[in-house]
């Protein structure tokens, strides 16, 4: 049975979530502060974290950073009253697998918990296969952009470029499909493994970040369809 850590300082909300998880067949524990959550994660065995952001003692973003900096890949669903695009992007780019806003329906939360747990299991299996098949020198190149996949290093025309983990993942997907138009839904699924709303501009935000770092002319918007990498001819015309 999967065990969920609920990090929420409002007891009523935490109890409501715990009741819904119990009805769905999950075990759960509650942490009322960020520091308490870190202690429980260190001392217990959990399969997923439901994380509020407005916590006493330690902000939810700090908790997430602490989890990821220690190398823990446990799935994290942020559940918060903060609904801005900036907070959503920050949460997802910092390593959360999902971002839900309050007020929320417990049925939707349970569905997302099940999805993240399944994705985590699938990713673990895929990682073991990929680890056996991938050459350590794997490298992706397209018109001056180079990604060194094992070391997560990027360069443009020989100059190193600093990419966040999510930016690198997005660039990797684009370079793996250099002649294909990828829709926003496809990119959400491939980069974020996300069930996010199709109206979300998360993909557009990260495309803009990537254009700023790789060159705006290298990523083409195909109106009504999605994004693809520029061809050599298109790149030459822009230069």
Topology overview:
Layout: E1 3-7, H1 11-23, E2 27-31, H2 34-43, E3 48-51, H3 60-69, E4 76-80, H4 85-93, E5 98-101, H5 106-133, E6 139-142, E7 145-148, E8 153-156, E9 159-161, H6 165-176, H7 184-192, H8 202-214, E10 219-222, E11 226-229, H9 232-238
Parallel strand pairs: 1-2, 1-3, 3-4, 4-5
Antiparallel strand pairs: 6-7, 7-8, 8-9, 10-11
Helix pairs in contact: 2-3, 6-7, 6-8
Domain Response regulatory: 3-117
Domain OmpR/PhoB-type: 137-231
Protein name: DNA-binding response OmpR family regulator
General description of the model:
This protein has helices spanning 11-23, 34-43, 60-69, 85-93, 106-133, 165-176, 184-192, 202-214, 232-238, and strands spanning 3-7, 27-31, 48-51, 76-80, 98-101, 139-142, 145-148, 153-156, 159-161, 219-222, 226-229. With 239 residues, the chain is of the alpha/beta class. It has 2 domains: 3-131, Response regulator (Rossmann fold, 3-Layer(aba) Sandwich), CATH 3.40.50.2300; 139-238, Orthogonal Bundle (Arc Repressor Mutant, subunit A). The strands form 3 sheets. Strands 2-1-3-4-5 form a 5-stranded parallel beta sheet, with helices on both faces. Strands 6-7-8-9 form a 4-stranded antiparallel beta sheet, with helices on one face. A two-stranded antiparallel ribbon has the order 10-11. A hairpin with a 2-residue loop joins strand 8 (153-156) and strand 9 (159-161). Helix 2 runs parallel beside helix 3 (60-69), helix 6 (165-176) crosses helix 7 and helix 6 (165-176) packs across helix 8. GO terms for molecular function: DNA binding. Pfam families: Response_reg (PF00072), Trans_reg_C (PF00486). Keywords: DNA-binding, Phosphoprotein.
């Amino acid at each position: 049975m999967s065990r969920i850590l609920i990090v929420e300082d409002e007891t009523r909300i935490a109890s409501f979530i715990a009741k819904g998880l119990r009805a769905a067949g999950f075990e759960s524990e509650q942490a009322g502060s960020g520091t308490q959550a870190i202690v429980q994660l260190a001392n217990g065995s959990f399969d997923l974290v439901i994380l509020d952001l407005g916590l006493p003692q330690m902000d939810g973003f700090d908790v997430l950073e602490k989890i990821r900096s220690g190398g823990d890949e446990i799935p994290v669903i942020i559940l918060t009253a903060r609904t801005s695009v900036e907070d959503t992007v920050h949460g997802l780019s910092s390593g959360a697998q999902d971002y839900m806003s309050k007020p929320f329906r417990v049925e939707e939360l349970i569905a997302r918990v099940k999805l993240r747990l399944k994705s985590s299991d699938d990713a673990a299996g895929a990682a073991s296969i990929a680890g056996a098949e991938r050459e350590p020198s794997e490298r992706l190149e397209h018109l001056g952009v180079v990604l060194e996949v094992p070391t997560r290093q990027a360069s443009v025309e020989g100059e190193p470029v600093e990419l966040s983990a999510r930016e690198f993942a997005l660039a990797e997907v684009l370079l793996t499909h250099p002649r294909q138009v990828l829709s926003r839904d496809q990119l959400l699924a491939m980069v974020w493994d996300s069930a996010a709303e199709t109206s979300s501009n998360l993909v557009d935000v990260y495309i803009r970040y990537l254009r700023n770092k790789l060159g705006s002319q290298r990523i083409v918007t195909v109106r009504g369809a999605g994004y693809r990498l520029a061809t050599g001819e298109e790149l030459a015309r822009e230069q």
